[in-house]
């Protein structure tokens, strides 16, 4: 029975040390990373840059959505502070941190239900 397996072992080639086969086996990993970068990572980085710019230029009258899902209108901002005063209902104002704002809907944008 052991003689049956020996010819198959001799028929195999001794591992070649060619660099072309090493590169070809590594190529699919590079391709998957490139696809992941262009489809997932890069658009997310661009969206983060855009949100940071919008938060920097936040002004009175802008509609915002916080990370908790609270929608409100900016009433007052302080450049030196990280806090923004937001009106979430008539005569109900709260202070929120700029970092908790997830979306900025400018005052020129139309709400979806109107």
Topology summary:
Elements: H1 2-11, H2 19-56, E1 63-66, E2 71-77, E3 83-89, E4 92-97, E5 101-105
Structure notes:
The mean pLDDT is 83. The chain has a domain of 49 residues: Roll (SH3 type barrels), CATH 2.30.30. The N and C termini lie far apart (82 Å). The protein contains 2 helices and 5 strands. With 114 residues, the protein is α+β, with helices and mostly antiparallel strands. A 5-stranded antiparallel β-sheet has the order 4-3-2-1-5.
CATH class bucket of the domain at 58-106: Mainly Beta
Query: How far is it from the N-terminal to the C-terminal residue, by CA?
Result: 82 Å
Described by the principal axes of the CA atoms, the overall outline is elongated
Reported for the largest beta sheet, the result is: 5 strands, antiparallel
What level of helicity do the residues show? 40-55%
Secondary structural class: alpha+beta
In terms of DSSP E residues, the strand content is 25-35%
CATH architecture of the domain at 58-106: Roll
Strand order of the biggest β-sheet: 4-3-2-1-5
How do the helices and strands follow one another from N- to C-terminus?
HHEEEEE
Which residues sit in consecutive blocks of at least 5 with pLDDT less than 50?
none
Helix count from the secondary structure assignment? 2
| Overall pLDDT score | 83
Return the CATH topology of the domain at 58-106.
Answer: SH3 type barrels
Radius of gyration: 29 Å
Extended strand count: 5
Subcellular location: Cell membrane
Protein name: Sec translocon accessory complex subunit YajC
Keywords: Cell membrane, Membrane, Protein transport, Translocation, Transmembrane, Transmembrane helix, Transport
Family: Belongs to the YajC family.
